[in-house]
Design a protein that fits this description.
The protein is mainly α and 155 residues long. The chain is globular, with a radius of gyration of 16 Å. The protein is built from 9 helices and no strands.
Length: 155
Protein backbone atom coordinates (compact mmCIF):
# COMPACT_ATOMS: atom_id res chain seq x y z
CA UNK A 1 0.00 0.00 0.00
CA UNK A 2 1.37 3.42 -0.97
CA UNK A 3 1.56 6.40 1.37
CA UNK A 4 -1.75 8.22 1.66
CA UNK A 5 -0.11 11.62 1.92
CA UNK A 6 -2.06 14.37 0.29
CA UNK A 7 0.28 16.19 -2.02
CA UNK A 8 -0.26 19.93 -2.03
CA UNK A 9 2.16 22.73 -2.83
CA UNK A 10 4.48 23.52 0.11
CA UNK A 11 3.61 26.77 1.91
CA UNK A 12 7.16 27.85 2.71
CA UNK A 13 10.71 26.64 3.25
CA UNK A 14 9.79 25.05 6.59
CA UNK A 15 7.19 22.98 4.73
CA UNK A 16 9.78 21.93 2.10
CA UNK A 17 12.20 21.04 4.90
CA UNK A 18 9.53 19.06 6.75
CA UNK A 19 8.70 17.08 3.63
CA UNK A 20 12.35 16.35 2.95
CA UNK A 21 12.76 15.20 6.55
CA UNK A 22 9.67 13.00 6.28
CA UNK A 23 11.11 11.38 3.14
CA UNK A 24 14.38 10.76 4.99
CA UNK A 25 12.81 9.35 8.15
CA UNK A 26 10.43 7.16 6.11
CA UNK A 27 13.26 5.60 4.07
CA UNK A 28 13.53 1.94 5.01
CA UNK A 29 10.63 2.12 7.46
CA UNK A 30 6.88 1.66 7.43
CA UNK A 31 5.43 4.95 6.20
CA UNK A 32 2.34 4.55 8.42
CA UNK A 33 4.50 4.42 11.54
CA UNK A 34 6.30 7.62 10.55
CA UNK A 35 3.01 9.27 9.63
CA UNK A 36 1.54 8.40 13.05
CA UNK A 37 4.59 9.88 14.78
CA UNK A 38 4.71 12.98 12.57
CA UNK A 39 3.08 15.38 15.08
CA UNK A 40 5.85 14.47 17.56
CA UNK A 41 8.46 15.06 14.85
CA UNK A 42 7.01 18.49 14.14
CA UNK A 43 7.18 19.39 17.81
CA UNK A 44 10.68 17.93 18.31
CA UNK A 45 12.05 19.80 15.28
CA UNK A 46 10.35 23.17 15.94
CA UNK A 47 7.88 22.88 13.06
CA UNK A 48 10.91 22.25 10.83
CA UNK A 49 12.06 25.84 11.06
CA UNK A 50 15.44 25.63 9.29
CA UNK A 51 16.87 28.43 11.46
CA UNK A 52 15.89 26.72 14.71
CA UNK A 53 16.91 23.19 13.67
CA UNK A 54 20.28 24.43 12.36
CA UNK A 55 21.08 25.64 15.89
CA UNK A 56 20.57 22.24 17.53
CA UNK A 57 23.56 21.18 19.63
CA UNK A 58 25.07 17.83 20.56
CA UNK A 59 23.05 18.01 23.75
CA UNK A 60 19.87 18.54 21.72
CA UNK A 61 20.71 15.53 19.53
CA UNK A 62 21.20 13.43 22.68
CA UNK A 63 17.79 14.60 23.93
CA UNK A 64 16.16 13.72 20.60
CA UNK A 65 17.70 10.25 20.81
CA UNK A 66 15.65 9.72 23.99
CA UNK A 67 12.40 11.04 22.47
CA UNK A 68 10.13 7.99 22.09
CA UNK A 69 7.68 10.01 20.00
CA UNK A 70 10.04 10.08 17.01
CA UNK A 71 12.22 7.63 15.09
CA UNK A 72 15.44 7.61 17.10
CA UNK A 73 17.89 7.09 14.27
CA UNK A 74 20.97 9.16 15.10
CA UNK A 75 22.17 9.39 11.48
CA UNK A 76 18.79 10.67 10.35
CA UNK A 77 18.55 13.13 13.25
CA UNK A 78 22.03 14.47 12.52
CA UNK A 79 21.18 14.65 8.80
CA UNK A 80 18.14 16.75 9.68
CA UNK A 81 20.33 19.27 11.54
CA UNK A 82 22.86 19.40 8.67
CA UNK A 83 20.08 19.69 6.08
CA UNK A 84 18.66 22.68 7.94
CA UNK A 85 22.05 24.37 7.50
CA UNK A 86 22.06 23.47 3.80
CA UNK A 87 18.58 24.97 3.40
CA UNK A 88 19.71 28.21 5.04
CA UNK A 89 22.59 28.40 2.55
CA UNK A 90 20.17 27.76 -0.33
CA UNK A 91 17.87 30.51 0.96
CA UNK A 92 20.79 32.96 0.86
CA UNK A 93 21.70 32.00 -2.69
CA UNK A 94 18.28 31.40 -4.28
CA UNK A 95 15.84 33.17 -1.94
CA UNK A 96 13.94 29.96 -1.20
CA UNK A 97 13.92 26.22 -1.74
CA UNK A 98 11.34 26.73 -4.49
CA UNK A 99 13.73 29.16 -6.19
CA UNK A 100 16.48 26.55 -5.94
CA UNK A 101 14.30 23.80 -7.43
CA UNK A 102 13.00 26.13 -10.15
CA UNK A 103 16.59 27.02 -11.09
CA UNK A 104 16.94 23.54 -12.60
CA UNK A 105 14.34 24.42 -15.22
CA UNK A 106 12.85 20.95 -15.36
CA UNK A 107 16.21 19.18 -15.33
CA UNK A 108 14.80 16.29 -13.30
CA UNK A 109 17.85 14.00 -13.42
CA UNK A 110 20.30 16.80 -12.62
CA UNK A 111 18.09 18.03 -9.75
CA UNK A 112 17.85 14.55 -8.21
CA UNK A 113 21.65 14.17 -8.33
CA UNK A 114 22.15 17.62 -6.84
CA UNK A 115 19.76 16.85 -3.96
CA UNK A 116 21.78 13.71 -3.20
CA UNK A 117 25.01 15.71 -3.12
CA UNK A 118 23.74 18.76 -1.25
CA UNK A 119 21.71 17.03 1.46
CA UNK A 120 22.64 14.35 3.98
CA UNK A 121 20.93 10.95 3.99
CA UNK A 122 19.26 11.61 0.63
CA UNK A 123 19.68 8.81 -1.88
CA UNK A 124 17.97 8.29 -5.23
CA UNK A 125 14.66 7.00 -3.80
CA UNK A 126 14.53 9.66 -1.10
CA UNK A 127 15.23 12.40 -3.64
CA UNK A 128 12.35 11.14 -5.82
CA UNK A 129 10.02 10.83 -2.84
CA UNK A 130 10.85 14.39 -1.74
CA UNK A 131 10.24 15.77 -5.23
CA UNK A 132 6.94 13.90 -5.46
CA UNK A 133 5.95 15.28 -2.03
CA UNK A 134 6.54 18.87 -3.21
CA UNK A 135 4.60 18.35 -6.47
CA UNK A 136 7.63 18.41 -8.73
CA UNK A 137 6.57 16.97 -12.13
CA UNK A 138 8.50 13.69 -12.24
CA UNK A 139 8.70 11.41 -15.25
CA UNK A 140 7.59 7.99 -13.98
CA UNK A 141 10.24 5.27 -13.98
CA UNK A 142 9.53 1.85 -15.51
CA UNK A 143 8.79 0.45 -12.03
CA UNK A 144 6.47 3.37 -11.22
CA UNK A 145 4.59 2.87 -14.50
CA UNK A 146 4.09 -0.80 -13.66
CA UNK A 147 2.86 0.10 -10.18
CA UNK A 148 0.46 2.70 -11.59
CA UNK A 149 -1.05 0.10 -13.95
CA UNK A 150 -2.11 -1.89 -10.90
CA UNK A 151 -3.31 1.20 -9.02
CA UNK A 152 -5.61 3.10 -11.40
CA UNK A 153 -6.33 5.82 -8.83
CA UNK A 154 -2.70 7.00 -9.24
CA UNK A 155 -2.59 7.38 -13.03
Amino acid sequence: MAPAWKVTPPKDDADYFGRMSKAIFTAGLNWKMVENKWPAFQKAFFGFSPAKVARLTERDVATLMKNQGIVRNEKKIRATVENAKAILAIEKEFGSIKGYIDSFGGGEVRLQKELQEKFKHVGPSTARMFLWMVEYPLTPTREEKMWMKGNPEHR
